[in-house]
Amino acid sequence: MHKGTYIWENLNAMESKYHYFKRDISWLSFNYRVLLEANDDRLPLYERINFISIYSSNLEEFYKIRVADHKAVASGVTLSDEESVQSANELVENINREVNRQLEDRIRIYEHKIIPALRKNHIIFYQSRNVEPFHRDFIKNFFREEIFPFLQPVPVYKDRVVSFLRDNRLYLAVRLFMRNTEKSNPDHVQYFVMKLPYSKVPRFIELPKYEDNYYLMFIEDIIKANISLIFPGYDVDCSYCIKISRDADILIDDSASSADLVEQLKKKVKKRKIGAVCRFVYDRAMPSDFLDFLVDAFQINREELVPGDKHLNLEDLRHLPNPNKGLKPLEKPKPMKLNCLDEKESIFNYVQKKDLLLYYPYHSFEHFIHFLYEAVHDPQTREIMVTQYRVAENSAVINTLIAAAQNGKKVTVFVELKARFDEENNLATAEMMKSAGIKIIYSLPGLKVHAKVALVRRKSINEDNKICDYAYIGTGNFNEKTATLYADCGLFTCNPKITKDLHTLFQTLQGKENSKFSTLLVARFNLIPELNRLIDHEIELAEKGKGGRIILKMNGLQDPSMIDRLYEASQRGVQIDLIVRGICCLIPGQTYSRNIRVTRIVDSFLEHARIWYFGNDGTPKVFMGSPDWMRRNLYRRIEAITPVLAPDLRDNLIEMLNIQLADNQKACWVDDKLQNIFKKRTPGTPTVRAQYTFYDWLNKTNS
Hints:
- Helix content is 35%, strand content 22%.
- By secondary structure, it is α/β, with parallel strands linked by helices.
- The strands form six sheets. The protein has a nine-stranded mixed sheet, with helices on both faces. Strands 12, 13, 14, 15, 17, 18, 19 and 24 form an eight-stranded mixed sheet that branches. Strands 4-6-5-9-10-11 form a six-stranded mixed sheet.
- The chain starts with 7 loop residues before the first strand and ends with a helix.
């Protein structure tokens, strides 16, 4: 990253003294940090390969959503309060420039580090159609028997019928010369495209072992090696891979009623695959006249052109076979079960005595499933209320809720239909739950509900028949799959202050107005006033010489008004540490941010927890919940944050924050040029790899 006008922007009035990183350029800095994991020789080889896959997949989604949005503004299709046609065009140019710069590094890492490392481990990964003589017969026979039957070459004509290229599918574009025709003959040069038959044949083919070596090959290279068999009567000039990314954003009227919203989504989700082109990626070795022909034939705007490597869709590398069984994968921490919650111990009984905090993926998500399972079979349970943002397919959470409804419990689930890329799954699970007798509440008009909360209402076994509520407030979704991949937290409590507020929140989701919250911080209600009060208090302490201190851990920091508050706090002496995984629009290293440090951690698990620490003159206040400090979270979503009131749990969270700040293996400083500057271990200090160090700490304290 290079410091320049394209990195910084001023979102306030012209005379504002503050500046901010541009959101999307900041995100590219994060994704580049993901790529740097592939460059780490200390990691197991296939873990490094997986990070290339993650980097590529992230970039694909980024173009489908963010870049597509900017291009819609740049073309005048949509209007934006935040950017002009000119600024949108400039931003897209800057994005493409940075992506092309990163591509150079990705190619270097892949070709000069990953491929030789595979070879060193006796895995020869062919990178072209050229194979050793002992494999020629195999790839010819494999092509004829396994690939050829599924190929459907489609002719490409300029100024005639335009073929449709499917979203994110890999195509081989081929240029041919018809034999026995003159160059002047219009039919002499022919063009075809062929979709790679992904669903029928794997992307990566294992070839017969030879001596001590294993061999792998791309399916497109096998096709290229046998391409003359597809086109008899032609001489093949050349062939190159291409792909299209299409706009995946769904423009809906989210002020519509629930019923209308459901119908809108059912129709529009299907159109996602035929959205406008937002990126045309091509092998940059393709001759310019070949590219020009394709651009004209498929009616591609030149602004959509993104040069790529010989092999595209490297997100598929997560499926790369590992034929060498001696090449061991990374030993990641295995989810542990809490000793205090053995099979005989009721979570209800435990939580009645003291709050419980789980850390995923270090702790097993089965504890949450067990919490719901207990509620299903407990005769005292009267009602279960849950929010659904993203759930796993064939979700154990959903299945347990259905069992609860079938068992006579009142179950209410708030389903957020507008969770991007999960609309179809959420619609399907909602309809399944509804048919099982679960009360379904759909999206609120104009808002997304991003809160990760659950409430179980139980009748007391005492004679008073009082209702005793059990709350769960988390930083991650109720998704058993991502709970093994994302680093999140979840709090169980029956503290009446919290449970009362959570019950109020669920009533709010059902249409109650004038909601008041005493303890929970809820976006769109009391969150921002309370954050301002907390920051003001740290400023006051700093000015009195009592050491104002703030630590904020989140995924994204973008809202200019909250960034301004942090700038102000820094100027007035508050020491601030930010642990921000992704987008961070706050610029460190300026006169107004000299007391702010920005840390980024990328490792085995996706850092996803949101935890906020305010020093409070030695009696810290710690909060956890669902929102980042993005404009969308603070102003256009329902989010829930809880204070962690139990002193031991609060201290545990502080320990986690301290471990993350001490990381000297996977942590970077983000500087004022958006560079990822790796933190170095000081001689004589212990090695700290936060995710693994914290897991060990949890293991030791598992009583």
